[in-house]
Each structure stands twice: as structure tokens, then as C-alpha cells.
Specification:
By secondary structure, the protein is of the alpha+beta class. The protein has a single domain, classed as Double Stranded RNA Binding Domain (2-Layer Sandwich). The chain is built from two helices and four strands, in the order ββββαα. It has helices at about 60-80, 90-95, and strands at about 10-15, 30-40, 45, 55-60. Strands 1-2-3-4 form a four-stranded antiparallel sheet. The longest helix has 22 residues, at about 60-80.
Length: about 100
């Protein structure tokens, strides 16, 4: 992702949340979530690497994760409605 810095001064966090349940209003997932600071965007960027192009941002890591939870639910709902295959969470996330 553009604007991410690796190395000295780079801040990154990884979150794993409980399982997705379509009957629950909020996004709950076992998909890994990677959160990086973007100097270019001036925000925290959250990405669900198992779901192509599923990303969000926020002024704090917590808000970026909150936004990606919504994005994951939306990604899965669109995939279901269009017949797109929904990838299983990566093994790494299952063991996190």
C-alpha cells in the first residue's frame, strides 16, 4: 500500500477477531487484520489480506479496525450476492 513505511519508525499492528456471523449486526471475523500507519495518507490503514481489495482507514488504530470490520461484512455480503468465492481465513489467523 502506498505511503507505508517499513523499517525504523514503522508502526504496525495485527488483530484477529472472533468468527463472522451474518446474523450479527457488527463485523466479527477470524480474518487477519493488518494495521499500518501511512505517512502519505496521514491515517492508520487497515487491510484484510485474505479478502482482495478489502481495506479501510481511520485516525486511530482502533477506528481503522472498526471500519475494516464493516468492510469485511460488506465484502462477504457482496461476494455472497454475486456468487463470488469467499476465501477461508488464512491458517496464520486461525492460530493467532
Amino acid at each position: 500500500m502506498a505511503g507505508q513505511r517499513r523499517g525504523r519508525g514503522h508502526r504496525q499492528q495485527m488483530f484477529t477477531l472472533p468468527s463472522y456471523n451474518p446474523d450479527v449486526d457488527r463485523a466479527v471475523t477470524t480474518y487477519p487484520i493488518v494495521v499500518d500507519w501511512s505517512d502519505e495518507d496521514g491515517a492508520w490503514i487497515a487491510v484484510a489480506p485474505d479478502l482482495p481489495h478489502c481495506a479501510s482507514h481511520g485516525p486511530t488504530p482502533h477506528e481503522a479496525v472498526s471500519e475494516i470490520e464493516d468492510a469485511i461484512v460488506a465484502w462477504i455480503q457482496v461476494a455472497e450476492s454475486t456468487g463470488r468465492e469467499i476465501p477461508q481465513p488464512s491458517l496464520r489467523a486461525a492460530r493467532a
